[in-house]
């Protein structure tokens, strides 16, 4: 299809349109920024402004696909921030940027004629970010608006896109970041005037009727955004939008007449590899028969091999769709039938949890690893920085589909599938206060023939239960496909679609959830959208399949294991008074380092006073917990402690009970008998069992060794003389007559002996 293109907006008029939707004002402005693009707009919500620019250029010769590129990039200056890291410049796209690019591409791509081959590039990013309103939705609105005002572009829009949250059962339009933190729904819906073209939603086990209600409300609100874009086009003085029909291709008709019967038989082969091999063989035969080698000096005849291959692909689409509408699926199943499912757990011995989930020719090996707070994923961007205690990574190596390709980093598809599975599983995870582990799940797709992202959801649930993560409910997922006859309106919904049904069908509608409701939903279409009837039927059919999948999963493991893997670290979390954090850390970190070394643990402390203790052994973690609790709880009257002698004086010994807290054992409380010197009982560094017998109003602690031994029923091994009767020998009291000299010496006028023993308590500690 040939289309003339004007690379610059011919009007260059500065136009601003706005509309209030759900109490939030959306503004679209054009003609001020990026005026050499084919179409450019700035979309504003609050103080968040996103610039979207689209350029359309002639396509390259021989393309058999629509070359559209969407790139969303965030410049953190928009939020008044510097880029993190050593290099103070934005680098490769983040996960958020990739997901927003995919989110924009998915609803727009189907709204171009099937034979359109012009190159379209859409670039977007926030130029102002208030950290309250997410710019991702503004990108979708802006992309549609730029295509609407781009001259000579046959875009089948406009397209409205809206985000809905739900707080206390009430839907919220364009929810802010704070509102989303309280919402049990995050739903994005893109739609044309008549049909829904894209859904991306995550909920906390939302029942199907409530999810459907939210989708229909979003479609209704999108009409306002469609009207706003048409108003923008009208103010620019542009005429009606082009909606041309694809031109018929005589070559496709010829291939259908000559080879459709043979291809039908090929597409009935049940095994994927055999079916693909037979399809490739038939294609080579078709190319050889229609494109004979030219003789010497002859020009290559028409059609070319490239044209024949493109027509053969169109023939495959037509034949597969005809077979499905006639009631024939390639693998012989009925429309609602699931493929054979097998589930296995405890597959790998060294990881903390593992599962193998197989559905037909789709196989996911999923592992779970449990870590500490140090393993959390920090996420930074134009919104506020935060950390993730749960993340799921999806990988699909090329051998999973029998292909040879270079090995590179994860692509957009892998990142998108991983996030879909992650957000679908997240609602059933335990609260971090109950289960403080950082959780990483990895799904490796070892074989793929349809809906590997939903296999990842199922495998992740099994792996988490195998790891002993106390999830609230198992989550299963399934993909529903669609083949619709556009002329008659007749359609068939297909449960558990395989590759050909995905490639040549009209939709891939993924639904994940528990027995109670939906946790994740994602819709991609290849036609111009879905009606309410199709959406309703899909949700019902997906629920039936999901319940059956959950039954299969629970046969492998009925509930989370009672104990986490022996390979996983032991974590204990306690709450202390935030004012005592400094005491726990100690001067220069001395106290916390000593605790970690002596107990073999790792301690993380939050500003709120939450202390997380990690250890390879449960005993080490419990010992560390007891010591921290004792330290932060303070010295308790009547409690027995095992302390360390820190200082020995003539009148007694000072014993450290807890880090930073000590007390004094008077010489009379060391033993029941009479001793000449404190050093007869203890020396600096000795461990001593003592009981707290008094705490005065100045928090000075008086201890007794002899009472602690008696209470524990332990024998005192210190040799001592019998204690003289009370009052015998003069003013010495229970210590007997005070000598005038000797090893006790005369009472000095100052120093350690002039600290005043006073009734009821030890000497002040600040003069030790």
TrEMBL record:
GO terms for molecular function: 3'-5'-RNA exonuclease activity; magnesium ion binding; polyribonucleotide nucleotidyltransferase activity; RNA binding. It comes from the Bacteria. Its main location: cytoplasm. Its EC number is 2.7.7.8. It is found in: Cytoplasm. Involved in mRNA degradation. Catalyzes the phosphorolysis of single-stranded polyribonucleotides processively in the 3'- to 5'-direction. This is Polyribonucleotide nucleotidyltransferase. It comes from Tautonia plasticadhaerens. The lineage of its organism: Bacteria, Pseudomonadati, Planctomycetota, Planctomycetia, Isosphaerales.
